[in-house]
Design goal:
Layout: H1 3-6, H2 11-28, E1 32-35, H3 60-73, E2 78-83, E3 98-101, H4 110-113, H5 131-134, H6 140-146, H7 172-181, E4 189-191, E5 199-201, E6 206-212, E7 217-224, H8 228-232, E8 238-242, H9 244-247, E9 252-259, E10 267-270, E11 274-275, E12 278-281, E13 289-295, H10 301-311, H11 313-343, H12 350-353
Length: 360
């Protein structure tokens, strides 16, 4: 479990692990792979030659490894992911035929396990020790660049708690979820900086994710990560050029813009048609993210349904805030009882402390 030596951004380590798995798979004639990925005990890497942030175990290469393994063994083989306590992203990574929830979920309530659906990784990096890196406004550009879909309700040692009760809760994630929710991402091919280049931006501080379906629809999400250019400019925009020929998409498409980085302000508006894959964004603030849905004909049904859902959001918000305040007061009382139990040398059990905090 020496993290520096087993970091998957290290070419030698990546090649060794991939080759070892496939050699064993072929030698014994297995019909598939069952993957329970164990992160190194320290969960950090300090080797500067791996080209990622210091003291951070790079997880994107795990996704890359899974996709390459699936491509090699073919779609007739079976790939099953194992969900543990701290990291359950293997349940959802592209390429798995199914998942078996593991030790971290064995004691959870049915409604908690019920949140595990769709193509949504729940990353161990949501652990509070990594809050600044993965759960802050500045992390959005990296999340969009890497194509990670974080779940807002999970991330405290496998316990699924209500997002609004999570001390590390990041409201923009809920707005980002609306963008994925407005598009059939489960049917799409994904493009980013590591794939074939089909997106060109004239601002290097802006990152992107692109999802394209066979039904000639696309979802583009961009985010201004900030930097020296943004900091010295009064207002920053970006020009986006999509390679419509490589994407096999028509030159003219309907365009819908999604903006607003909180649930309350999230909105969808139809724009002028997109011609020849060119999109101009007049202004994008530091850490702001904006989504675009392009469609040859009608917009995705998912977007239409989301618009209908959002129409009544403000009527629902009153009840949401009322319930949140009630739960917060209950949690305050539980914490008082917890402190009192410690002083009496009779600590409260963890499950009792988590009462009314687990996911609904």
């Amino acid at each position: 479990y020496d993290c520096d030596e087993l970091c998957l951004r290290c070419d030698q380590a990546y090649h060794y692990m991939k080759t070892s798995i496939l050699t064993c798979y072929r030698h014994f004639g297995f019909d598939g792979l069952y993957i329970d990925f164990a992160w190194p005990g320290q969960a950090i890497c300090t080797d500067s030659s791996h080209h990622h942030e210091q003291e951070l175990f790079n997880f994107y290469d795990y996704f890359r490894m899974i996709r390459e393994l699936r491509k090699t063994i073919g779609h007739d083989a079976i790939m099953i992911g194992h969900g543990g306590s701290i990291m359950v992203s293997s349940d959802f990574v592209e390429g798995f035929d199914g998942c078996l929830t593991g030790e971290g979920q064995k004691d959870m309530a049915p409604e908690t396990i019920g949140v595990q659906n769709g193509n949504a990784p729940t990353l161990w990096t949501f652990h509070r020790r990594k809050q600044d890196t993965f759960r802050s406004a500045s992390s959005m550009a990296g999340i969009i660049r890497e194509g990670i879909t974080p779940h807002v309700g999970l991330g405290i040692l496998g316990k699924s708690i209500i997002a609004t009760l999570d001390p590390a809760h990041t409201p923009p994630y809920i707005a980002l979820w609306q963008m994925w929710r407005a598009f059939p991402v489960h049917e799409a091919t994904y493009y980013n900086y590591l794939t074939e280049k089909v997106v060109t931006l004239n601002n290097d501080e802006v990152t992107y994710s692109l999802y394209v379906t066979k039904s000639k629809q696309m979802l583009l999400i961009i985010c201004n990560g900030g930097g020296s250019y943004a900091e010295k400019m009064f207002s920053v925009g970006v020009n986006i050029q999509l390679d419509m020929e490589k994407l096999a998409l028509p030159d003219t498409m309907s365009c819908y813009k999604m903006s607003g980085n909180t649930y309350e302000t999230f909105r969808i508006a139809q724009q002028e048609p997109c011609h020849n894959g060119m999109i101009h964004v007049e202004e994008i603030g530091i850490h702001e993210f904006i989504g675009f849905i392009l469609s040859e004909d009608e917009p995705p049904e998912e977007m239409v349904q989301l618009e209908m859902y959002l129409e009544n959001r403000f009527e629902r918000l009153a009840g949401i805030y009322s319930s949140k305040m009630k739960r917060l007061k209950e949690c305050d009382q539980l914490l008082k009882q917890f402190e009192k139990s410690k002083s009496n040398n009779q600590p409260m059990e963890a499950d009792k402390l988590m009462t009314r905090r687990v996911a609904e």
